Amino acid sequence: MACHEIAALRLALMEVLGNTDPAERQHELAELGDGAEAPGPIRALCGARDLASMRRSYEAAIAELEARVSRTPAGDSELPYLRTLVVLTKKVELELGHQIDGLAHLSRDLEEMHDFVHEIYPAGPGAA
User: Fold this and answer.
1) Is-contact 25 14, C-beta < 8 A?
2) Which of 11, 14, 31, 115 is the most exposed place for a label (fewest CB within 10 A)?
3) Does residue 78 form part of some domain?
4) How far apart are CA 55 and CA 90, in angstroms?
5) Do 36 and 42 touch, CB atoms closer than 8 A?
6) How many domains does the chain have?
7) Where are the beta strands (DSSP E) in the chain?
8) How many CB atoms lie within 10 A of CB 36?
9) What's the pTM value of the predicted model, to 2 decimals?
10) Residue 116 within any structural domain of the chain
11) Can you give the pLDDT at residue 127?
């Protein structure tokens, strides 16, 4: 059993954050196996280059996981693992949203502070 959603999200985060550690990348690709190349949200997540596409792809991967759980028969030995994975991925989804929202908030604050500095110094430093 593999946590494809988490491995793919880690690959996306490596890309977005500029992490170029080849050993770390290979570890996650090994976790994914053929899943990294199969059409669908996992492959899209592996290739995400920005926060918005990473978030969309991760949400789609979770929806696919939830659909898989709903199709799994009650007596299947994999079902408890899959249910636990749904809980894990949901928690990660919430945290990812908080982090992205925090960065958006920082960006808005920077703009507000920039405007404030120009209110204090309308002509800029060194102007006569």
Assistant:
1) yes
2) 115
3) yes
4) 12
5) yes
6) 1
7) none
8) 19
9) 0.87
10) yes
11) 60
